[in-house]
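Quick one:
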Amino acid sequence: MSGALPRIRVLDMTRVFAGPWAAQILADFGAEVVKVEHPRGGDDVRRMGFPQTDAEGRETGETSSFLAMNRGKRSVALDIATPEGQATLRALAAEADVFIENFKAGGLARYGLDHASLAALNPRLVYCSITGYGQDGPYAALPGYDPIFQAMSGLMSVTGVPDGQPGAGPNLVGYSVSDINAGFYACIAILAALHHRDTVSGRGQHIDLALLDAQLAAHSHIAMNYLVSGRMPVRAGTASQINTPWQSFDTADRPLMVAVGNDRQFAQFCEALGLPELAEDPRFATNRERMAHKPALLPLLQGALMRRRAGEWVEILNAAGISSGPLNDFGAAREDPQLNHRGMWREMPHPRAGTMPFVANPVRFSETPVTYGRVPPRLGEHTEEVLAEWLGGRAPAAP
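Output:
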């Protein structure tokens, strides 16, 4: 046993992104995670994303999306529509610390696998339900996916090209941000509930987490702009809603992201650009004034930045104490020396592909380092192994 969560047993009865993401984080931290899947097809995400291939270009049967969300787990295949499957899962839950599910609200009650039923078997169980809209409310029974929550939470109203510019309109964030945020909140809540169980109450509890709620909470600092001022945040492209200059600029070869955090940094930025007089201009002396006079300021900055290449500007601005960086694609990010120094790009042996590249967990513990002991499992690969370890090798008889 290793990691920060030894002896913590997790049943991951989730599909697609949010739940599997939360469970993978727990696995990275040392928990024993068992992924419970239907024998026919398993997790839908097994069929989403780009196919994994071996050294000869042959497909292994796994996909990029499944590989991204399911390392560190073992897979058990159970059909919970059968009495035998229900009995087996209840027996496993009796031995678990955490149960994560993302069925529709109330959907597991008919199988006797809802929180009340499993808590009666195992009062110490932390039971986490992840749904689109939560366990109650007018939308509780509705299905939902990430783009719906990006739209409904207000995120897309501030993401995209500003009105009046070419291509104006809302854009979808380029990854399933609502799922990932919900997965983070789920992991945080599970750890808090385990701590409360083990230090205060001795009992588990039910966590009710909605993707819509999680996405709104994740950008609450933007929502607060509206709540505090009554002014509606708008689409700003790459620009900040509250600071300027804080956006991408064109250079002689490619775009450059610049983030100036305060008035002192603005003076340093202007000096580096060869425009020290801008910092003394009363229209630009403070961030509030700069925000009010952006149409006058930005063309002046843009004209100066076009005189050099992005790489040259990064060196100049870094030396001046100004945060900047190129707009990388993943190929460029893969070669970035800082990301490589930090070990964020990893590989692990894979029985069918030879090796599996992956993005590392970013957390660095001083005493319980993250380890990557298992590749994402094949469907049902560990059914007999887990039943032997958890239940003594035999599934309980159905009632």
